[in-house]
Write a sequence for this structure.
């Protein structure tokens, strides 16, 4: 099943929702957009595309697995995905009326239809890529909680960094102590004025 629907087809559907139930191999398309993806299972996509308040609304459920490198060791990590996608497509971006708060449709993001077609495949790919976390670790890395280190360097956690910063704030700076020794003593200076 294709996931690109011409506007003409949607207008002829007579307000009947189009049922979507397909399985797609998206590995090549995802790797073209994010070269760090090592592998991907087939993705199961189910849902509907039907008439919405202002145009057409898609409600999709996407399930599959990506294999991406660990941000610590670059070892492959399986990342299971289970996404709910709810988007509203319109022919033109509506102008907000004075009696409305922010935008037409409330909190809904309105996507203006391009090339006279609703492309759900792009939406699925976008949501899959956005679901990849910035940090991902192998189960072993999570269990060990060890950071990489080398000669003269080491990676520390945010908690360790915060603890080190707090400890350094408590210790007086030895450079300031040297400067203080160069200045005259304030109590001796004030006695000489009297």
């Amino acid at each position: 099943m294709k996931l690109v629907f011409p506007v003409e087809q949607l207008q002829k559907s007579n307000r009947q929702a189009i049922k979507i139930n397909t399985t797609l191999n998206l590995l090549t398309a995802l790797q073209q957009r994010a070269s760090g993806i090592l592998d991907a299972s087939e993705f199961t996509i189910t849902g509907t595309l039907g008439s919405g308040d202002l145009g057409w609304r898609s409600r999709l459920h996407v399930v599959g697995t990506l294999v991406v490198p660990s941000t610590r060791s670059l070892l492959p990590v399986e990342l299971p995905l289970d996404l709910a996608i709810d988007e509203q497509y319109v022919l033109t971006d509506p102008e907000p009326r004075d009696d409305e708060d922010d935008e037409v449709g409330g909190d809904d993001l309105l996507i203006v239809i391009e090339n006279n077609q609703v492309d759900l495949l792009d939406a699925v790919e976008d949501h899959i890529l956005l679901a990849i976390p910035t940090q991902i670790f192998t189960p072993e890395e999570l269990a060990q909680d060890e950071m990489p280190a080398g000669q003269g360097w080491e990676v520390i956690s945010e908690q360790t960094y915060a603890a080190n910063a707090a400890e350094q704030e408590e210790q007086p700076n030895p450079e300031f102590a040297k400067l203080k020794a160069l200045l005259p003593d304030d109590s001796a200076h004030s006695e000489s004025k009297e």
Remarks:
- The helical segments are 7-12, 27-33, 120-130, 139-144, 158-170, 174-182, 186-193.
- Residues 158-170 form the longest helix (13 residues).
- The mean pLDDT is 83.
